[in-house]
Design a protein that fits this description.
Blueprint (H helix, E strand, L loop, with lengths): L3 E7 L7 E6 L6 E3 L5 E3 L5 H4 L9 E7 L10 H14 L5 E5 L5 H11 E2 L5 E4 L12 H13 L1 E2 L2 E2 L4 E5 L2 E4 L4 E2 L8 E2 L7 E3 L3 E3 L13 E2 L7 E5 L6 H8 L6 E6 L9 H12 L3 E6 L12 H9 L2 E2 L5 H14 L2 H7 L11
Parallel strand pairs: 2-5, 2-6, 6-8, 8-11, 18-19, 19-20, 20-21
Antiparallel strand pairs: 1-5, 3-4, 7-17, 9-10, 11-12, 12-15, 13-14, 15-16
Length: 352
């Protein structure tokens, strides 16, 4: 497990608030050494590279994973560590900014949205497509604005008391987001849900879209069960492949990415395999391959059969949220509760 390093980055005598940066790794914190190679950035020198951060008039601390993690290597143990840091420091800070690689940022944001039950403070994930040392880097604007959002209050209350992603001038709900671009700065989108805020000359908050927990007491649940599988349907998918996945030892849940509004081939072998899996106690969840829209099982004949054998329609869950929500539910609740809660809106992840 990663070791942590703590730095008091900025201290003001009359600070407007306190923000904790959590650096996990990713492109954001890289810079070129004298040989031209990208190496981890020393956050104790951040003010030298980003002097305008002092103008925010905030107390800012940094907690770094001692060995930065490429986000492709992120796993549930890292989600637990992030949640631990937030839980331990929860009462000392007004908000939290997690610097994270973009590849799995949406997975981490989704996982944290479920783990941090009753969250009443901002947890903003951000990163960059170019390292902070590059002249055209998007890191500076992303970080400054993410910190501003994490500290933003209205009448003494946080404006964004949820887990969100800030990237390229937009604040998106974490469990509605997905990475959609690897070469442009607008790397994230939340096709089924509007932006929570847009940053221009000022930050314009979409207050009606921001999620607020009814329970204001933070409860952190850190158990995950990764006994799941994900199948993306495609024309000509073989029964041998499907059977091999379903027969995986210890499998508890299967996510199937179907066409359009939840449609799948009506081939007998496919329905038989899914039906047998359900009879054997495996949860089968149907989500759409489309970035927008939702699963409506039974709308067409090609999805009615799935409904009849007991496949659960996943409504407008993203792949990232379906994966992390199932892991979270399987790790914390009974089998029957998982089947019920997977289509309940727990943290703003579903349109009911």
């Amino acid at each position: 497990m990663a070791q942590l390093k703590r730095t008091k980055l900025i201290q003001h005598q009359q600070a407007k608030g306190n923000v904790l940066l959590i650096y996990t790794g990713g492109t954001f914190g890289m810079m070129r050494n004298t040989a031209g190679s990208l190496v981890p950035f020393d956050f104790s020198n951040m003010v030298d590279h980003l002097p305008t951060i002092k103008n925010l008039s905030l107390n800012i601390d940094v907690i770094e994973f001692e060995k930065p993690i490429d986000s492709a290597n992120i796993n549930p143990e890292h989600w637990k560590l992030m949640a631990d840091v937030i839980e331990i420091n929860y009462h000392d800070f007004d908000g939290f900014v997690i610097l994270h690689g973009t590849d799995t940022m949406a997975f981490s944001a989704s996982a944290l949205s479920f783990m941090l039950e009753g969250l009443s403070k901002p947890v903003i994930l951000t990163g960059a497509q170019l390292p902070i040392s590059e002249p055209r880097s998007d890191a500076r604007e992303n970080l400054i604005t993410a910190i501003e959002i994490a500290a933003a209050k209205d009448n003494g209350k946080p404006i964004v008391p949820e887990v969100a992603i800030f990237f390229d001038y937009e604040l998106l709900r974490g469990n509605r987001s997905k990475k959609v671009e690897s070469m442009q700065f607008d790397a994230f989108d939340s096709g089924n849900y509007p932006a929570l805020a847009k940053a221009g000359v000022k930050i314009d908050f979409n207050r009606g879209a921001i999620f607020s927990h009814q329970n204001k007491f933070l409860t952190v649940r850190k158990n995950f069960d990764a006994s799941i599988a994900l199948i993306k349907l495609y024309p000509g998918i073989s029964s041998a492949y499907l059977q091999a996945v379903v027969n995986t030892r210890g499998l508890k849940a299967l996510i199937i990415e179907t066409y359009g509004s939840g449609n799948a081939p009506t081939d007998t072998y496919l329905l038989s395999i899914f039906s047998e899996a359900i009879k054997n106690g495996i949860i089968v969840l149907n989500i759409s391959q489309c970035q927008g829209g939702r699963v409506t099982q039974g709308k067409y004949e090609t999805s009615k059969a799935l409904e009849e054998i007991g496949v659960i329609g996943g409504l407008d869950l993203t792949t990232e949220t379906a994966v992390t929500k199932l892991m979270y539910l399987l790790g914390n609740f009974s089998f029957e509760e998982v089947k019920t809660k997977i289509i309940q809106n727990l943290a703003g992840e579903l349109t009911i």
